[in-house]
């Protein structure tokens, strides 16, 4: 039995795609019970399509995929990234999946899955947190039944990538992040503090693409994406679940700025007693990764597919 049952809430996105593949390649550690998609890197139509195409690439059409929210909680339209190409997979053409989206909305699926397996599901948002926030708003009774939240997002002690202070996933829907991160769920943050250390190189991709046709496609996606951002942001979430000894971090207390100004999406993390003001830490912030070991593990796992 896998150590972690997870719902991967994502917006594929190249690094989301690699995170999906890494999860599927690690059945002893990860049981991917479902994928939920959200608008983020690209539109919801593209993220839902891309998630299924990645599952099909790995010959895992049994993984249910649910489409979720097409916009942030409080805005009529979302914001997209440019580094993933027009459709989200680095302009790499993958075959269409021949299995359909599940009929349920992602928010309803999240609620149902947590009630079905109380205390067992780890939620892994690696895109904007809109789906999870609305699941909590719709049914707050799921909160104590969530095992933990392990997410990619935020910038605690470093500059942002969407603004001087904000990371993309939090910037897109800071209101959702505020709802989720203040809900009282045990949570682990893999933000830019650590993911900017998880760098890929051209020589690494040259070696990777020789291993199999699947890895040739994965390397091509990462090569296109890496021209703008050579970091494996989202796979760090899965890698932490597989082997937390790859990482180090600190305990702190997080808050999210929902001001729609230059502080939009800023994640403030207090770690010193004088900044905590008597409050208890509510988050583990990962700050370091052994990148050579991470890349070695990623190559070995993806080769299994």
Please give a handful of descriptors for the protein shown.
305 residues; alpha/beta; 12 helices; globular
Written description of the protein model:
The chain has helices at residues 14-24, 44-57, 106-116, 130-138, 168-172, 174-181, 192-195, 202-208, 213-226, 235-242, 273-276, 291-303; strands at residues 4-10, 30-37, 65-67, 121-125, 148-152, 187-190, 247-256, 267-270, 283-289. 35% of the residues lie in helices and 17% in strands. With 305 residues, it is α/β, with parallel strands linked by helices. It is globular and about 55 Å long. The protein has a nine-stranded mixed beta sheet, with helices on both faces. The model has no long low-confidence stretch (mean pLDDT 95). The chain contains twelve helices and nine strands. α1 links the parallel β1 (4-10) and β2 (30-37).
The major β-sheet equals:
9 strands, mixed
Give the DSSP E fraction (strand runs of 2 or more residues): 15-25%
- Order of strands, main sheet, comes to 3-2-1-4-5-6-9-7-8
Helix and strand element order:
EHEHEHEHEHHEHHHHEEHEH
- Class computed from helices, strands and strand pairing: alpha/beta
- Measured as a percent range, the helix fraction is 25-40%
Task: Tell me, rounded to a whole number, the average pLDDT.
Answer: 95
Protein name: Nucleoside hydrolase
GO molecular function: hydrolase activity
Domain Inosine/uridine-preferring nucleoside hydrolase: 6-295
Keywords: Glycosidase, Hydrolase
């Amino acid at each position: 039995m896998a150590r972690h049952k997870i719902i991967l809430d994502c917006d594929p996105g190249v690094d989301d795609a690699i995170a999906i593949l890494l999860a599927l390649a690690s059945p002893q550690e990860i049981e991917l019970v479902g994928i939920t998609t959200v608008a983020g890197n690209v539109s919801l139509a593209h993220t839902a399509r891309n998630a299924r195409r990645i599952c099909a690439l790995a010959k895992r059409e049994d993984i249910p995929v649910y489409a979720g929210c097409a916009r942030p909680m409080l805005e009529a339209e979302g914001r997209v990234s440019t580094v993933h190409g027009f459709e989200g997979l680095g302009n790499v053409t993958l075959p269409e999946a021949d299995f359909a989206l599940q009929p349920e909305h992602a928010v309803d699926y999240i609620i149902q899955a947590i009630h079905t397996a109380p205390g067992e599901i780890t939620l892994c948002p690696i895109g904007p947190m809109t789906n999870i926030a609305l699941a909590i708003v719709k049914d707050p009774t799921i909160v104590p039944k969530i095992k933990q939240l392990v997410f990619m997002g935020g910038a605690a002690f470093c500059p942002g990538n969407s603004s001087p202070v904000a990371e993309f996933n939090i910037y897109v829907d800071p209101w959702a992040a505020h709802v989720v991160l203040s809900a009282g769920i045990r949570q682990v943050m893999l933000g830019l503090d650590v993911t900017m250390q998880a760098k890929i190189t051209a020589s690494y991709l040259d070696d990777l693409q020789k291993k199999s046709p699947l890895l040739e496609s994965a390397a091509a996606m990462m090569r296109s994406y890496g021209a703008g951002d050579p970091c494996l942001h989202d796979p760090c979430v899965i890698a932490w679940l597989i082997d937390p000894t790859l990482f180090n971090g600190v305990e702190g207390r997080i808050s999210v700025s929902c001001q729609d100004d230059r502080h939009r999406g800023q994640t403030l993390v207090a770690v010193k007693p004088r900044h905590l003001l008597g409050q208890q830490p509510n988050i583990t912030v990962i700050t370091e990764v052994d990148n050579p070991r991470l890349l070695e593990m990623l190559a070995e796992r993806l080769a299994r597919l």
